[in-house]
Specification:
3 strands; about 65% helix; about 120 residues; three-stranded antiparallel sheet; mainly alpha; about 10% strand
Amino acid sequence: MAVLKFREAVEEARTGKATMGHAIESGCMAVEVTEDGGEPNASLPQLPAPETIATSDLAMKLEAADIAISNLQQLLGEVRISHNELRRALDDLKRDRDEWRGRAERLTERPWWRRLAG
């Protein structure tokens, strides 16, 4: 625990003197009285470093994110396959259309009665 002067503890905690006094009275903070009768020293509880807080939670979230990413990659692969199949089908339809258009143009070049009469 860090030992601070009362004023430093108030500034560090960013609270008022009354709030700090209530924390001391309720036992949330330890207080040492100085020998010379000056301000008491207040001990603020030391918090763990941020990187050690809930690393298991972070690991679980990271694992869930990895699973979601792999699912999205699999889905993207399926979409690409479907896209390629649709592209091939569209190309086939365009070729058929062009073939039928060519036949229709050849048939309409001469009137029907000339085709029959030769």
